[in-house]
Structure formats: C-alpha cells, structure tokens
C-alpha cells in the first residue's frame, strides 16, 4: 500500500499521539522514524495535568499515574541547605482530577504510546527516512528511504512533521526558525544514588550558576539529574562524561551517586517556526517550537499540538468539515508557542544568570518569596494553573464564540465535581457535545437528537456555580474539550450559525 490519509514523520511523543488520536477517529496513518529504536536517554519527565485530562480519551491517564511518580514537594537549596519547600501533592486541588505533579519519563511514555498504537494495527516503521516531498494538488507525494536502502514513492492526503528541532519537513517548507541558542550545555544523567535529596521529592539548587535539579523516579534511589555545564568544558560537549561536569551543585545537594546508568549532553534552543502550516503539510512539537526545559512544558506542548490537529484532520478527511478548519491549527497553537518560549526564556535566564546581583536574587530573594507564595492559596493556584497548562485557552480566535458565566469561548471547560460526580466524564469520548447546567429548551433537545449531537444536561448544583459555569445556558464543546460556544440562551440556531460559518457540515462520533 503506497497511500494513506496522513503520513507522520517522527515517532516521538508528538508523532505517536497524533497517530493514536487519528487512528481512534478512523483515519488511516503511516508513521515513520529514521532511528532504529525509541530513545533511551530522554530528558522530558513531567506529564502535566492538562495532558492527563486529554489522555482520558484514550484511557492513557490511569496507566501513567499508576506507573509514574507523584511528586509531593519541590525543595530549593542554598549553600548545602534546604531553604524553601513548595508542597505539590494537592497544589491544584479542586481545579482538575490531576491536582499534582506527575513524573513519567519520556522513554517509558513512548513505550506506552507505541503499545497502544499497535492495538490499532499501526506500527512505527524504523530506519525509514523522508528524503523529500512535494504537494500535488490533492495530496502529498513523498520520497522515502527504506531500511534496505531502497527508495519508495508514497502518497498521502496530508503530511505531519513531528521530526524534531532539525526537521526535514520544516526545512523543505523553507520556514524560518527564528530565536537563539543558550550558551550553556545541558546534561542529563540517569543515576542510582542516595542522600537527603533522594526522598521522592524534587530538589533544585539555587546557589550556583551551574543549575542542577534532581527529579525523582518511581523506583527507590533512582533519579534523573539535569544540570548545566559552563566555561571551557562546554566547548567540546561530545567528549564530556559525567566525571567532567561540575560537582559543586551535586555536593551542595548532598547527592552520593552510586551508579550512572546513562549520561547525555545537549544544547537548548528557544525558537518558534515562522508558520505551522503550509498547504497540506504541518509542523508540530519540536519541529515547530523549542524552548528551555523550565517547567516541563516541551513534550506536553507537542502533545497538545497533536491533539489540536488530530480532530480537525479527521473532520476534513471524513468529509464533515471544509479544509479551512485546518487553518485554525496554526492560529491556535503558534500563539501559545510564542508566549511559552518568551516565558520559559525569562525564567531560565533568571535561574542561570551570572553575577553578584543574580546570585543575590536567587539565594536571598527567591528563598524568601517561595514560602510566601506557597502559604497563599492564590499563589499556589496561579503557579499550578500556569505550569499545568489548564489556563491555555483560545479566546478571541476564529473557532471561539461567546461568554456564559465566567467561561469564554476558547476556554478549557472548568472541572466541577461533588459527591454526585463530575462534568468531565462525558469528555472521555472525543466528539462534539453540548453541556447544559440546569435546564434547557425542548427545541435544543429536539435539535441535538435530530443531528445526533450528544447533549448532557446536569441538574444545577452549587459545584457548577463555584466552577464559574452559567445556569441554563449551554456550552458547545469541541472534540478536544475546549469550549467552542459559550451562550446564555437555549437556542440551537446559535449552533446552526456556528456550523455554517465554520464550514462544519455534521458532527462525528
């Protein structure tokens, strides 16, 4: 078979999630990767709450929470002493079913995604490389290099570039990749070790410009060390060994390394591609945006790209939406990527800045402010909302309309729960649906039945008011659980107009 609906280049988390969601929605995919095997020296660790919420649609969340590690607190160290502790076990309590920090390393993550993808009969084709491609009116024609060295011509309706920071897809599209590269060399070491920082919590050294963080893993005494390398040592990163990196920070955190399982170095860039879509080709994940590892945002943002694009591709390929729906992928995701790169750049610059003033800010001001913030519910909530990506929204963008209660079109639907249940259960199914909190009209019920649009009417309860939801209005939800329409009426004509304006012909499920 030399044709599929979507050809996916790159089998990291972004490409795998895109393949999974498309397969779930009945789209035929082919996914290739130039490497011979999944990576084993990954540096992405955190799975954010918003990712876990969306992963419920493929029954992935429970597996990650069961096999990962829930971090109880973040500790900050200065001059060999722990000076501040930020509790994390319930930092987002009441905001999401996943009100904690979850560590699940990228290598284990990829293995899980590959296993789930194979259940759909799709296997990653290894040692297979994209050499070039061109758009041919009604599709993409790609030239592939197969494992045996032979060339193959392959056709697809669309092509997704999930092939990392050195993306051949991005280069073929001639998309600029403006930004820069941090001067530091990063290293990641997977170690068995002991000491006070191996208590299952996150530990960060604020004392030195040589940044170091200890990320706990599920098994006892097992952690990932992520740090920076400076001065002349950074000139030849390819020759560096663990023994060559600065041990000042390691000693400050009282880490006694017993065994290094593996060690890797890398440079970090902060860049966003000029565009994310060109005709029938798309850029996702690191092919579209790269940034510092501060906050554990990179992998989660790529996964968000994949989920955003998947339902739109499925709608177009299944004949239920016009091609113009795909323009919203770039509009929604590029804005977030630019904000994220700017934010992580500022935080990273603060953490790694050199000089007396920078040292004073890190060692004196930060330890003072962190406990203050941790003691205030508003401070903890702001931090969690930002890092967990639950505040990511598409307000003011083409697919987002209206306001009802405190919820705007483009918002993530707020989580509301009490002893009677929660409003997220219907979201497990990645389909368009309508939520009503209170009562609705006979016309709305009849219209939804006629158009086979799932309608969920919840009896009004205090939990809904506390979450900021409007009584007796309605929310039209996209398959990725963001609010398309927030409206105080019970008029189905509002939905009809929305469908017509956006070229969506019918719902799918």
Would you write up a description of this structure?
With 509 residues, the protein is an alpha+beta fold. The protein has helices at residues 13-24, 49-55, 61-67, 106-118, 168-172, 248-252, 298-317, 327-352, 356-375, 377-388, 442-450, 462-466, 493-502; strands at 3-9, 29-32, 46-47, 69-71, 73-78, 81-87, 101-103, 129-135, 140-145, 151-161, 179-194, 202-205, 212-216, 222-229, 256-272, 277-278, 281-283, 289-290, 401-404, 407-408, 417-418, 421-422, 433-437, 455-458, 474-477, 483-487. The longest helix has 26 residues, at 327-352. An eight-stranded mixed sheet has the order 6-5-12-13-14-11-15-18. Strands 1, 2, 8, 9, 10, 16 and 17 form a seven-stranded mixed sheet that branches. A hairpin with a 5-residue loop joins strand 13 and strand 14. Helix content is 30%, strand content 28%. Residues 4-342 form the FAD-binding domain. Pfam families: FAD_binding_3. Keywords: FAD, Flavoprotein. Its cofactor is FAD.
């Amino acid at each position: 078979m030399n044709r599929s609906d979507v050809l996916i280049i790159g089998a990291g988390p972004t490409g795998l999630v895109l393949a999974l969601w498309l397969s779930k929605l009945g789209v035929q995919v082919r996914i290739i990767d130039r490497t011979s095997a999944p990576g084993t020296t990954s540096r992405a660790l955190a799975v954010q709450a918003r990712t876990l919420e969306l992963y419920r649609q493929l029954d992935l969340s429970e597996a990650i929470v069961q096999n990962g590690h829930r971090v109880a607190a973040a500790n900050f160290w200065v001059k060999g002493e722990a000076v501040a502790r930020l509790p994390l076990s319930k930092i987002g309590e009441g905001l999401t079913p996943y009100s904690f920090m979850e560590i699940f390393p990228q290598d284990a993550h990829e293995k899980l995604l590959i296993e789930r993808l194979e259940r759909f009969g799709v296997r990653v084709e290894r040692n297979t490389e994209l050499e070039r491609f061109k758009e041919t009116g009604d599709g993409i024609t790609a030239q592939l290099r197969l494992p045996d060295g032979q060339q193959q011509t392959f056709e697809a309706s669309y092509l997704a570039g999930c092939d990392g920071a050195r993306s051949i897809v991005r280069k073929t599209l001639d998309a600029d990749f403006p930004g820069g590269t941090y001067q530091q060399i990063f290293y990641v070491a997977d170690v068995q070790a002991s000491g006070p920082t191996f208590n299952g919590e996150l530990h960060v050294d604020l004392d030195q410009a040589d940044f170091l963080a200890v990320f706990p893993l599920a098994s006892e005494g097992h952690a990932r060390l992520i740090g920076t390398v400076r001065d002349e040592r950074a000139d030849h990163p390819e020759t560096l060994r663990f023994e060559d990196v600065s041990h000042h920070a390691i000693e400050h955190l009282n880490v006694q390394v017993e065994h290094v399982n593996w060690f890797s170095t890398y440079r970090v860039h902060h860049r966003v591609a000029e565009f994310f879509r060109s005709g029938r080709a798309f850029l996702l994940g690191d092919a579209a945006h790269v940034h510092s590892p501060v906050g554990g945002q990179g992998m989660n943002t790529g996964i968000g790209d994949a989920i955003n694009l998947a339902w739109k591709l499925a709608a177009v390929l299944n004949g239920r939406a016009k091609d113009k729906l795909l323009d919203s992928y770039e509009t929604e995701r590029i804005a977030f990527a630019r904000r994220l790169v700017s934010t992580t750049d500022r935080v990273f610059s603060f953490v790694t800045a050199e000089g007396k003033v920078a040292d004073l800010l890190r060692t004196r001001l930060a330890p003072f402010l962190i406990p203050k913030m941790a003691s205030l519910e508003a401070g903890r909530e702001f931090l969690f909302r930002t890092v967990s990506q639950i505040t990511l929204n598409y307000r003011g963008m083409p697919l987002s309309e209206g306001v009802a209660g405190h919820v705007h079109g483009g918002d993530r639907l707020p989580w509301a729960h009490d002893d009677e249940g929660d409003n997220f259960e219907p979201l497990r199914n990645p389909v368009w649906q309508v939520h009503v909190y209170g009562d609705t009209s006979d016309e709305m019920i009849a219209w939804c039945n006629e158009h086979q649009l799932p309608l969920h009417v919840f009896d009004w309860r205090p939990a809904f008011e506390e979450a900021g939801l409007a009584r007796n209005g309605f929310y039209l939800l996209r398959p990725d659980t963001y609010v398309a329409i927030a409206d105080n009426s019970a008029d189905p004509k509002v939905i009809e107009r929305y469908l017509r304006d956006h070229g969506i012909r019918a719902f799918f499920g």
